[in-house]
Amino acid sequence: MYPQNAYSQLCMVDTLEKMGISNNFSCEISDILDMIYRLWIHNEEELMLDMGTCAMAFRLLRMHGYDISSDGMAQFVEQSSFDDSIHGYLNDTKALLELYRSSQIRCLEDDLILQDIGSWSARVEYALKFPVYATLERLEQKRNIEQFKTKEQLKIEGFKLLKSGYRCLNCEPIITWISGAITNDEILALAVDEFHSSQSVYQQELQDLNSWVAQTRLDELKFARLMPSITYFSAAATMFPSELSEARIAWTQNCILTTTVDDFFDGEGSKEEMENLVKLIEKYNTPSCCDHIVLYRWDGHGEIGFSSECVEILFYAIYNTSKQIAEKAVPLQKRNVVDHIAESWWFTVRGMLTEAEWRMDKYVPTTVEEYMSVTVDSFALGPIITSAALFVGPELSEEVFRSKEYIHLMNLVNTIGRLLNDMQTYEKEIKMGKVNSVMLHALSHSGGGRGSPEASMEEAKREMRGVLQGSRCDLLRLVTRDGGIVPPPCRKLFWFMSKILHFVYMEKDGYFTADGMMASANAVILDPLQVTLLPSGLGTL
């Protein structure tokens, strides 16, 4: 099957993904990308000479796990490659945006080709507000559906299709590789129907989560930032297929739990209460005859007791929810994996307690490394990702959870979260008496007080942005590579979390600017589509 036009085929794949219906055509998409990969390997002119086609091919191939280098993009390193081209003359902003997107798919921090392309393409006025690593699929899909033009609408509005393929979400001519033909009208109708159906699922799940909050008594903790709609949005905006219901629910429950526990350790709990909660969750080793097994004290919580009602509510919310998640996962995992959830919670609360002790004792870590060794775990993504990973498809063996790859993935995404959070909240946290990596980096550049505080702070943020970029490149390389012990659907969860973190911390800490986040949440979960379907009779949603 040779394509009528490589760009049209790539555009169709991109359209199906952007409209949220690519799962319906997974086999066809795989065939298309295999063919595009062969064209890429053979350096075919049809693919490589056109800026928009080459950039889109690079982005889609790399994000679908094909092993390709950025060498094919070297021809676009200089801005003159755009300015002197027919695209520059025609002001082809879509090709430029595609080039900019492709430059963000960096798996190596020192990839100079993509770095140079991103450097010049990001300076143009058309650069995206939200880069690829900060876009949330379901939110973008809704926007794409609402802006999608049917063939009839294109005629009405007087658009002319270029012979080389219409450069937007709409693809012409009609594509004939999916069981005959699929038109723009059919794409739109299918996307609208699927989005509408998924919203019904999301609304029911959110209702169930609100009931869970009441059942766990978390709503009795006045200090807790519960926000079920916003936390659920982070799951629905990335794990949007309806069949991932259990993954979304487990993700959201642990988002709510970790946020509440973080508030507790941030000053709402006394030292006695915090130590009590950690002791209730704390792990211990079994006798030497079976020292490869790790058990947790929480099954013996009755012997330890609760120092307050607040600790009791928090513990039972974590304990009961974790056991329920593990029980639901048994059919998929063929074993009870509650110990893995418990261990992720132990790492989390252990780090939170150390941070709280630093604050209470007014202790400042001597190095950034000392700070990060504690606060990476305390950023608390472990329980969220571990719980959701149980429901995304593959059976996860003991070796997967214990593998260096899984641990490294978790460390990378926690590092990304910690750095993003610290860069947006350091002023507030310094006032609260909390240690922050921005402050520690600034101290290391202050020269014993001889340097300007402002200059030291700017240098600290510049250095942290470099570390953040390196961590993001490492994460993307692990997520998209071929092979590895961690199954691809599980690896994708780490990338989803990274995208959510970049979205939340794009400008400010999203948890403290909830209005904007709530608007995004409503757009995905509650607000109906604003689109008119043609031909007439299908109605306006």
Automatic annotation (TrEMBL):
Gene Ontology molecular-function annotations: magnesium ion binding; terpene synthase activity
UniProt xrefs under Pfam families: Terpene_synth, Terpene_synth_C
Cofactor(s) in the UniProt record: Mg(2+)
Annotated Terpene synthase metal-binding domain residues: 217-445
InterPro entries for the chain: Isoprenoid_synthase_dom_sf (IPR008949), Terpene_synth_N (IPR001906), Terpene_synth_N_sf (IPR036965), Terpene_synthase-like (IPR050148), Terpene_synthase_metal-bd (IPR005630), Terpenoid_cyclase/PrenylTrfase (IPR008930)
GO biological process: defense response; diterpenoid biosynthetic process
PANTHER family in UniProt: ENT-COPALYL DIPHOSPHATE SYNTHASE, CHLOROPLASTIC, ENT-SANDARACOPIMARA-8(14),15-DIENE SYNTHASE, CHLOROPLASTIC
Official protein name in the record: Terpene synthase metal-binding domain-containing protein
Species per Swiss-Prot/TrEMBL record: Oryza barthii
